[in-house]
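Let's practice the habit of predicting before peeking. Look at the sequence and jot down your guess about where helices and strands might fall. Then scroll down.
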Amino acid sequence: MIEPSGRSVRGLHHDVYVGFVMIVFCAVAFYVTTTFDSVPAMLSQNIPATFFPRLVLATITLLSVILIVSGLKRSAESLGSVPGSVFTTAAVITLAVFLVKPLGTLLTVGLLALTLTWLWGERQWSRIASLAIGLPAAIYLVFAIGLQVRFPRGVVMSLIGAGG
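Done guessing? Here is the structure:
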């Protein structure tokens, strides 16, 4: 709990609370994965629909436990206001979710990398372009080619006949 003065009421570092909230989120999201429809074996590519979401949730849970443990080792501190960049980042990521269907996964990831990198202060276009091109390329190589996972292509990519 945080008082209006910004001081912690219970004396725990704020990372402990954030870690617990993230674990609760992961538990709820894991439950949601139990409601996924089963995919026919012919279309599943030998990977159930729940595999990647649960892998991500397990990773987030592990990182949350580490956050809690490190927070327990630190003393409570007063929190400042949340920077506006947090809300801008959340808005951009939310918009990206809605862009996957029209643009496809890989194009959306590239645009997301470009936009967030610029919003966070990077101004060297060579670095921005490297990430915006390199990240989707790496994802494509690992997941589409290596693991044979199909990504939504999107309307734009289907029209131009690109992507996989």
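How did you do? Confidence is low (pLDDT under 50) at residues 5-9.
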